[in-house]
Specification:
Order of helices and strands: EHEHEHEHEHEHEHEHEHEHEHEHEHHH
Distance between the termini: 25 Å
Radius of gyration: 21 Å
CATH superfamily of the largest domain: Glycogen Phosphorylase B
Structural class: alpha/beta
Shape: elongated
Length: 368
């Protein structure tokens, strides 16, 4: 049996999350364009891996027990050697590092390895130091937003000639065709003002500042905040709610697969992150035509322009965040104008078809 592939994708894990779900869509799109693809997860395949298998995609895993399980190098090298792919495309820091070393072990050409970073790294700056000295072991490093590419050039000192921008995008029809969610099933009164946040409950997401701001909003307006997602901060945040007396107006929804329906039902979307790459959650809120409140940080500022298609406030400023949330919830004319412009911007600048075309162009360049 011919084991050759056009593209072998490598990712750190396939748990539910933005990058693994992005990879699933990317693999589907490349298969639709005639590329033969397979996927390798360094960690056990996880739920997104099972989804891909149901899609008919061959998914391998290297059985990593932790992020620094060096045994994955040999296992990945064996898979690379077996398939002799046209391109090895890795996503996320640990997968990028493993792919660079595994390609060497498998005598696979470095100029057919493509790595991808989807965040402006501010928490683990040692990642940038490692990328500075290992980026030469791949052909290109892809960034999914102008902010990510600029950060990699300035902080990791990767030359622009070895960087490629593939702007993230979404299919807006998936959001716009969703049926509205019945918020009264969550105990929210009919007609109440509602704001939604979506993501991982993680320190970088600015959720402590969000709760500070929402307490100020609640002092002036009878509103409800929905938090869709899960993560390591949940227990701490639930304790904070009780201490602030917000437990009746802030609703933890856990991980959801009906975010488009939630977006159709709320009045505003709030996203106070410290840093991002190109947040899919913001793109989905734009497609839904929501009034968006976000922070003036990398990733978010690539999408949202203050007063044009959303409201932008400094990171960590709870007073400014509260004022913007209140305006988005109560000023219907402003909210409608911002939401309509955000929705048009997705169609014009951030459609997923352009994203997939850019990936395909890079693959053809590398395989040429």
């Amino acid at each position: 049996m011919d084991q050759r592939l056009d593209i072998l994708y490598v990712i750190t894990d396939l748990e539910i999350g933005g990058v693994p779900l992005h990879l699933r869509r990317l693999v589907g799109a490349m298969r639709g364009r005639g590329f033969r693809c397979a996927v390798v997860s360094l960690a056990p395949a996880g739920p997104v891996g099972e989804m891909m298998r149901e899609d008919g995609v061959e998914v391998y895993d290297c059985g990593a027990c932790c992020r620094f399980d060096v045994r994955v190098m040999g296992r990945l090298a064996a898979i690379v050697r077996e398939h002799r792919s046209g391109v090895v495309h890795s996503l996320l820091f640990h997968a990028n590092l493993a792919s660079r070393f595994a390609a060497r072990m498998a005598d696979f050409p470095a100029d057919r390895v493509v790595c991808e970073i989807q965040t402006v790294e501010v928490e683990r700056t040692w990642h940038l130091w490692v990328d500075r000295f290992t980026h030469v072991d791949c052909r290109f490093t892809i960034g999914n937003s102008p902010s990510v590419v600029e950060h990699l050039c300035e902080r990791a000192r990767i030359p622009m000639s070895r960087l490629r921008l593939v702007k993230g995008g979404i299919d807006p029809s998936r959001i716009r065709s969703a049926a509205p969610f019945d918020l009264t099933s969550l105990g929210i009164p009919a007609g109440a003002l509602t704001a939604l946040w979506v993501g991982r409950l993680d320190p970088v997401k600015g959720l402590g500042v969000l709760l500070d701001a929402f307490a100020r909003v609640r002092a002036a307006v009878d509103a409800h905040l929905l938090l869709a997602g899960d993560g390591p901060l949940r227990e701490q945040l639930e304790g904070d709610l009780l201490a602030r007396g917000l437990n009746a107006s802030v609703h933890f929804l856990g991980s959801r697969n009906d975010v488009p329906s939630l977006l159709k039902s709320v009045d505003a979307f709030v996203f106070p992150s410290r840093t991002e790459g190109l947040p899919n959650a913001l793109l989905e809120a734009m497609a839904a035509g929501k009034a968006i409140v976000t922070t003036d940080v990398p990733g978010c500022r690539d999408l949202i322009r203050d007063g044009v298609n959303g409201l932008v406030v400094p990171y960590g400023n709870a007073v400014a965040l509260a004022g913007a949330i209140r305006a988005a919830l109560t000023d219907r004319s402003l909210s409608r104008r911002l939401g309509e412009r955000a929705s048009r911007d997705v169609d014009d600048r951030w459609h997923i078809d352009a994203t997939f075309d850019a990936y395909a162009s890079i693959y053809r360049e590398v395989m040429a």
